[in-house]
Amino acid sequence: MLFVSRSKSLLNLNILVVFLSVSFVLSSGSLVAKESKKSKETKNISTVSSGEDKPGYTLVDRVIATVNGDAVFYHEIQDKLKTSNIVLFSSYPAGESASDYERALNDEINIKLVVQAAKGLGLDDEGDVDQKIADFLTSNHLTKKELLKELESQGISFEKYRKDFQDQMILKDFQSRVIYPMIKITDKDLEAYYLRKTSKNDRSNLRYDLRMIFIKEGKDAKEKTGVVLGELKSGKSFEEVVRLYSDDSSTRKEGGLISGVYLRDLSSDIAGVVKDMKPSTYSVPIKSSDGYYIVYLVSTSLGEDKNFNSSKQRLQAEYSQELYQRQLTSWLESQRRKSQIVINK
Length: 345
Description:
This protein is of the alpha+beta class.
């Protein structure tokens, strides 16, 4: 990371950029290493399976992967590993348990996939880069002279800084133009996310829309309940079976619908079953003192909840980030399937 005396970063973009550089020499298309500062014989470095130097050689750089023909160099991964910012974009498909090297390599591969895709999306406009750098310097009260001085102290060329700056511009534009437009969150979505994040046992603020079949206690009640189950299993709709068999005349016409009830409104036997049900499923017969109940869960919704109302902004941000990661992973998975990615072992 580059720092100035005013403790302001030289790149204030959404994605943190680490500008460290390992110099390398290209000779007749091969990567080579120098044994000293004086003029000495240079030796070609062959591709090796690890990042260690071979005896008699100083490893300067090598191609460790190609992404649709674009090279990923050894020094690019080493630069990441020297910092705390191993992953700048996404390490997919490497998970958190993967090695730092594997995560850094996949991150670099994914960045190259985005930069390549940007060419077809018009996000790689060279003309914007210099103006964006100038705007950045102005907003941070820096001069180009101060920038060049800091880059020189870090051993980084302005050309590399400019290229990294452009890549980060592309990543930022890619996020805003490609990924974020795919994220849509409705009030219902946010409620469902909140319920998923809260304890499964805390259902006190949930409202339930139910349909119920009631079979009145009597000598034929058990047999009739068996017939009802058979009708449901045969594929008849719950509403139709309610109208044919339910002994509750007050709800029979509405298909047994009971809307907006809380668990506390139900008997303990029924509430104990309903709280663990999923929408569009029906229960086993529930025996009570007055007969048998079969319950169908239509839907759930959030009732009045002060915690939810006060946390909406935070929940929105959390859920947006979750969906962003999901959409980004889906995009990367698709791009990787149709790309030619070669990792040198």
